[in-house]
Design a protein that fits this description.
The protein has 16 helices and five strands. By secondary structure, the protein is an alpha/beta fold. The protein has two domains: about 170 residues, 3-Layer(aba) Sandwich (Rossmann fold), CATH 3.40.50.300; about 160 residues, no CATH class. The chain has a five-stranded parallel beta sheet with strand order 2-3-4-1-5, with helices on both faces. Helix 5 runs parallel beside helix 6. The longest helix has about 40 residues.
């Protein structure tokens, strides 16, 4: 082995190790793939915020630089976001879905062309689950009979939304949720230490979710979710504490819809859309965000009730929302920890019911009164 080849191997290992610092399984899989020669298609699967995107960019850069005339320069350009490397195509949905025209033009047809400057081309489809079935079927032939110089990387937080025929033709690279310490390190400058630590634990390994929890909107959502849970404990609580949660989700949906509309109207690189198409797509983005935020609100309710049960049982050390420990102790005074755990089950049942398109307000109202009854009966 030449000194140059040895140096490239060390550089490659260092790059992959850095991109998969908290993902040992992915590190082994990607390191072995580069050592043996990468396959034609990979499915990077794992929760949001687990590092799939950074790992995919590093993996793509290593593939493109392996036999390049100027490896360091090829790697540098491939690592830029957006990348000017002509042999790297990175496709992300501009709205809630990948358009079939973009998948066909930027991936399927482009895959037939030989590399522009190196020996390899890499196509990355971010949020692959956002491809409609029509797009996935169109991509199937490219996965079945890829040119020898092409490599496809599909990134997905919801791999179950992909057709089995798509997933089965890809080698899987699995990513786990990041540990709270790793999440906290990435958001350390976004709030007080105690709040950052709590957000990292409440985010369940999702860095973007942790950042949201430290934003004004996220703090407001957490306040409404915890307020609903606390009201169920308070015998004197009245009103409709679940409405704040609905309003917070509604506001997040409106903001997402507005941002999507602006992005789609300003988009100069994609297919021109009519005003009707822009409106419909923006509304889809808004509805999706509203649903995500409402579900996150219910998760935060679950976290409060779980923490309440832990404090009532004397297990303060496992509390997720540790920045609220004084409020939790106040609510847990004289509370039965078993009742708190039963309320967690009630919230989880409500989350499942919302997937069946039941009335959100009626579902939350029923949840509140059932939780109130459970806690007061204990």
């Amino acid at each position: 082995m030449t000194a140059g080849a040895s140096e490239r191997e060390r550089s490659t290992r260092a790059a992959i190790d850095s991109a998969t610092e908290h993902q040992p399984r992915a590190r082994l899989a990607l390191g072995a793939a580069l050592a043996a020669g990468p396959a034609h298609a990979y499915l990077f699967r794992g929760p949001r915020g687990s590092g799939k995107r950074a790992a995919a960019r590093t993996f793509a850069a290593e593939i493109l630089s392996a036999q390049a005339a100027e490896p360091q320069e090829a790697r540098r350009r491939a690592m830029l976001d957006p990348s000017p490397h002509p042999d790297l195509v990175w496709l992300a949905p501009r709205g809630s879905q990948h358009l079939i025209e973009e998948v066909r033009e930027q991936v399927i047809r482009a895959a037939a062309y030989r590399p522009f400057e190196g020996t390899k081309r890499v196509f990355v489809i971010e949020q692959a689950e956002a491809m409609r079935e029509e797009s996935q079927n169109a991509l199937l032939k490219t996965l079945e009979e890829p040119p020898e110089f092409d490599h496809l990387l599909l990134l997905s937080a919801e791999p179950e939304a992909l057709l089995e025929t798509i997933a089965s033709r890809c080698q899987e690279v699995s990513f786990a949720a990041l540990p709270p310490e790793a999440v906290a390190a990435q958001i350390a400058d976004q709030g007080p230490d105690e709040e950052v630590a709590a957000a990292a634990r409440l985010a369940a390994g999702d860095v973007e979710r942790a950042r949201f929890l430290l934003s004004d909107g996220g703090r407001g959502l957490r306040r409404e979710a915890e307020g609903m849970a606390r009201a169920a404990v308070d015998p004197g609580a009245g009103g409709a504490p679940w409405k704040g949660l609905l309003e917070a989700a509604e506001e997040a949906g409106k903001q997402a819809e507005g941002a999507a509309r602006q992005r789609l109207e300003d988009d100069e690189g994609g297919r021109k859309r009519s005003a009707r198409e822009v409106g419909e797509e923006a509304r889809r983005v808004g509805r999706r965000r509203r649903t995500e935020v409402l579900d996150l609100g219910l998760e935060l309710c679950t976290a409060w009730l779980r923490d309440l049960g832990a404090v009532a049982a004397g297990a303060d050390e496992v509390v997720l929302g540790s920045d609220r420990i004084s409020e939790l102790r106040e609510d847990a005074a004289g509370l039965d920890s078993v009742a708190a755990r039963r309320c967690v089950e009630l919230v989880q049942d409500t989350r499942r019911r919302l997937d069946l398109n039941v009335s959100e307000e009626l579902a939350l109202e029923a949840l509140f009164f059932r939780a109130q009854e459970t806690l007061r009966a204990a």
